[in-house]
Amino acid sequence: MGPQHPSTHGVFRIVLELDGEVVVKATPVPGYLHRGIEKLAEARTYTQVIPYTDRMDYLASMLMNWGYVAAVEKLMGIEEEIPERAQYIRVITGELSRIASHMIATGDYAGNIGGLTGFTYTFRDRERIMDMFEMVCGSRMTVSYFRIGGVAADLPDEFFPACRQFISDLPSMCDEYDGLITGNEIFQARTKHVGIITPEDGINYGITGPSLRGSGIAYDLRKVRPYSVYDRFDFEVPLGERGDCFDRFSCRIKEMRQSARIIGQALDNLPDGPILAKVPKVIKPPAGDAYAEIESSKGVLGCYVVSDGSPKPYRVHFRRPSFINLGMLGKMCEGWKIADVIAILGSIDIVLGEVDC
């Protein structure tokens, strides 16, 4: 079946077995975009691996950077040495990255259902985040901004008014998405009560992120196991009620609003000081292993790093939320019609760079 979703234009395949128009079995076939990032990491220094993480979930590259450097910092035993200013900057840029990812998810999903206008609205607004990233690090999508021990550069002066204006405007942007997409009766007919993930199935399949929270389970690492300085911020974890496509979609719009709250608090309390811990130029962690997790835009991103004491990692492995969330697609599609498969796949919000890393 396909192409329908942007990821089904050659890099992802779904094989459907049908009884008329009803799906009897759906088999996801990933692997066509595989670039061997985990293997390539074995021939790079610890710092040289960072640009590869940008290419995983390239729609939320700040968060991909964070998941990797957090694991290396744990391996080196320097988690407590990360400067406070760097921690706050990570939160600000990470939440901007989450908003940018959710904007793509929102607009792209509307396009999947047939409402192309929503796509143009969210891309218009996301450009403002890309402009801010360009101010911070010179790049818009593949940022390579995080460093082992902190971040690459301090936030420039022009970033602050742009960011404050953006988070001030964000609620009205989300209102616009709700008016144009969420409240549309055709959109609701295509998504409500379709592709339900029960709380039990969500847990059993290891699903995380908005795809799990849409089923009413309040599992967000930023709350249940706070890392960095997230325990200092006041925000809510939006939840769905039915676990259907509509709930997963609406959770992402609500999460954008919460991310703006976090960014505002971080800007208000941003401390002065250094942005990078004192780490050696040639990073050689002691032999051993470490695993760290962060809450990415798609769910829990985990990174497992093994060191043999050399300047290059012996092994790097990522727990990719898109890949794991995709594991339930077959069950979600069974009993629904061909047109519903489009709505169900889009509601998971996968990105193939992360699935096939």
Automatic annotation (TrEMBL):
Could you list the residue ranges that cross the membrane? none
* Main location (coarse class): membrane
What keywords sit in the KW lines?
Cell membrane, Membrane, NAD, Quinone, Translocase, Transport
What are the GO MF terms of this UniProt record? NAD binding; NADH dehydrogenase (quinone) (non-electrogenic) activity; quinone binding
Q: Spell out the PROSITE patterns in the cross-references.
A: COMPLEX1_49K
The entry's localization annotation reads: Cell membrane
Which stretches make up the NADH-quinone oxidoreductase subunit D domain? Answer: 113-286
Would you say which domain of life the source belongs to?
A: Bacteria
Q: Name one GO cellular component term.
A: plasma membrane
Under catalytic activity, the entry for this protein gives: a quinone + NADH + 5 H(+)(in) = a quinol + NAD(+) + 4 H(+)(out)
Q: Name one Pfam family in it.
A: Complex1_49kDa
Identify the EC number(s). Answer: 7.1.1.-
As for membrane topology, the entry says:
Peripheral membrane protein
Q: What class of enzyme is it?
A: translocase
Q: What does this protein do?
A: NDH-1 shuttles electrons from NADH, via FMN and iron-sulfur (Fe-S) centers, to quinones in the respiratory chain. The immediate electron acceptor for the enzyme in this species is believed to be a menaquinone. Couples the redox reaction to proton translocation (for every two electrons transferred, four hydrogen ions are translocated across the cytoplasmic membrane), and thus conserves the redox energy in a proton gradient.
UniProt similarity note: Belongs to the complex I 49 kDa subunit family.
Q: How does it assemble?
A: NDH-1 is composed of 14 different subunits. Subunits NuoB, C, D, E, F, and G constitute the peripheral sector of the complex.
Q: What is this protein called?
A: NADH-quinone oxidoreductase subunit D
Taxonomic placement: Bacteria, Bacillati, Bacillota, Clostridia, Eubacteriales
Gene coding for it: nuoD
